[in-house]
Every structure is written in structure tokens, then in C-alpha cells.
Amino acid sequence: MWRRVASLSSFISSSSSSSFVAQTASRLNTWESLTTGIPHQENGVSVPKEKNPFITFVLGGPGSGKGTQCIKIVETFGFKHLSAGDLLRREIASNSADGAMILNTIKEGKIVPSQVTVKLIQKEMESSGSNKFLIDGFPRTEENRVSFERIIGVEPNVVLFFDCPEEEMVKRLLNRNQGRVDDNLETIKKRLKVFEALSLPVINYYSHRGKLYTIKAVGTEDEIFEQVRPIFTAFEVCSASTMILQAQ
Ligand SMILES: Nc1ncnc2c1ncn2[C@@H]1O[C@H](COP(=O)(O)OP(=O)(O)OP(=O)(O)O)[C@@H](O)[C@H]1O
Ligand SMILES: Nc1ccn([C@H]2C[C@H](O)[C@@H](COP(=O)(O)O)O2)c(=O)n1
Ligand SMILES: [Mg+2]
């Protein structure tokens, strides 16, 4: 379990001249996570700082372009990309004990029990050697969200929501052509219902927590990425400022 650190957001809000950076910093309650973990003084004793992970949840309806944009974020900002759906599909392919249950759940457009998905994410996080994660397609439900917080012990720093009209999502999924068992009209309709009933409340939750960045997910892939880029650029600026302050 990762240790949480105190928020520095009020300090940044009052000292930064860039409003976007200040707004970003005010949302970054564990922003030391992007820094180098330089030892700090506690009661006069120098102690190494435990590094917190920097976590981005990537949410949006089926076919909204989460995976596509994650590839661009990884290329530009160097995150470790963990797709919950890909991890579950890997379990099916490896004939694991949960494989058959996962396959049936995905075919039905339903959500796999949180315990299973969070354990897969946890394993990947721990073995990755990375400290910056894009967790794609998770949390899909309140149960997912609570389970992640309980097992991993941290909240996300950023939540991206790719907001795409239903009609466009259906068109994209039917053209995806990757041989997915859930890319058929019958399952797509079920997934859209599940998204509205179970995932939208999670998105609203993060909106109320001030962590949500809504992206209009229509247009070309590059146009959409130009809405995403400034979010992470701002966090990089904040991170660099932290390192300068720590070095002083
Ligand atoms: N801006 C875009 N315009 C047109 N097609 C797109 C765009 N972005 C992604 N696509 C295509 O739409 C399909 C779905 O995209 P992607 O797999 O990234 O969605 P997703 O949100 O990850 O979906 P899922 O939740 O089902 O995994 C893919 O075939 C992708 O190439
Ligand atoms: N948190 C999650 C993520 C995914 N699943 C299952 C159900 C989804 O329809 C399917 C495909 O996911 P995608 O690749 O579209 O992100 O995987 C889940 O149960 N829980
Ligand atoms: Mg995807």
C-alpha cells in the first residue's frame, strides 16, 4: 500500500502565476509523486521519501477512444498504461481459474467482480517498476472505485472522461474489427446501459471531488489529444517546480 502525503495545493495556488498550472496544482493532492523522492528533513533527521504513484483513471463509454488516447499519452508523457479490459482478456486467453467467468461476463456486457480486476491491476502496478499509471477503463462502478481505494490505498490524481455521443461510439465499435467478443450490436447495447447506470455515477463522484477533466471526444484523434496534452503538461510544470523548491 502506498503512503499518502499532505496536500501542497494551497501553497501552489497562491504562488504560481499561471492560472492553468495553479488550477492543476490545486487538484494535485499527491503531487510529490512525479518528483525524484529527494530525502527530506523530519524532526531534524534526513529520511528518504516514499514515492507515491501518480494515478490517472481514464473513463468514458465503450468506443469513446480511451485506448487510442492512452497510446498518445504514453508516447508523449511516458506513463505505464494498464487497460483493465486488456488485463481481463489476458486472463481469458491464459485459461486462468477466473477465465470462463470473465469471458461470460464480458459477452454479457456486464462488470467483472472488483476483487478480480483490482488484483490484476495491483499485480501489474507492483511489477511495472513505474510510478506513473494510466488506468484505462477503470473504475467502471462504485464497487470498483471503493475496492481500488481499499486494496491499493490511494486515490487518483487525475480522472479523464472522454465524452462521446452514443451514436459515434456505436459506429466506432462496429468498425473496430479487432475480433472482440463484445463488439456486436447486442452486447454494445448492454455495455451502453451499464455505462449509463453504473459508470456515470463514478464520473460524477470525481467531478464533485474536483478531479475530473472532461474531454470532448469527437473529431480526429489528434484534435482530441490536443485537449488532453495541456492537462499533463501542467502537471509536469508543477512537478518541475516541486523539484526546484526541494533543491533549495
Ligand atoms: N477520434 C476518433 N475518430 C474516429 N475513430 C476513432 C477515434 N478514436 C478512436 N477511434 C477508433 O474507434 C475504435 C474504438 O476506440 P478505442 O478502442 O480507443 O475505444 P475505447 O474507449 O478504448 O473502447 P472500449 O471501452 O471498448 O475499450 C477504434 O477502432 C479506434 O481506432
Ligand atoms: N473495470 C472493468 C473494465 C472492464 N471490464 C470488462 C467489461 C467490459 O465490457 C470489458 C471490456 O473492457 P474495455 O476493454 O472496453 O475497457 O471488460 C470490467 O468488468 N471491469
Ligand atoms: Mg479500450
UniProtKB/TrEMBL annotation:
GO terms for molecular function: ATP binding; nucleobase-containing compound kinase activity; phosphotransferase activity, phosphate group as acceptor. GO terms for cellular component: cytoplasm; nucleus. The keyword Ubl conjugation does not apply. It catalyses: UMP + ATP = UDP + ADP; dCMP + ATP = dCDP + ADP; CMP + ATP = CDP + ADP. GO terms for biological process: 'de novo' pyrimidine nucleobase biosynthetic process; nucleoside monophosphate metabolic process; pyrimidine nucleotide biosynthetic process. It holds the Pfam family ADK. It is found in: Cytoplasm; Nucleus. Its EC number is 2.7.4.14. Gene3D superfamilies: P-loop containing nucleotide triphosphate hydrolases. A ribonucleoside 5'-phosphate binds at R89, K110, I111, V112, G137, F138, P139, R140, R180, R191. Binds 1 Mg(2+) ion per monomer. CMP binds at N144. ATP binds at G63, S64, G65, K66, G67, T68, R176, G219. Its cofactor is Mg(2+). Keywords: ATP-binding, Cytoplasm, Kinase, Nucleotide-binding, Nucleus, Pyrimidine biosynthesis, Transferase. PANTHER family: NUCLEOTIDE KINASE (PTHR23359). Catalyzes the phosphorylation of pyrimidine nucleoside monophosphates at the expense of ATP. Plays an important role in de novo pyrimidine nucleotide biosynthesis. Has preference for UMP and CMP as phosphate acceptors. Belongs to the adenylate kinase family. UMP-CMP kinase subfamily. Consists of three domains, a large central CORE domain and two small peripheral domains, NMPbind and LID, which undergo movements during catalysis. The LID domain closes over the site of phosphoryl transfer upon ATP binding. Assembling and dissambling the active center during each catalytic cycle provides an effective means to prevent ATP hydrolysis. Monomer. This is UMP-CMP kinase.
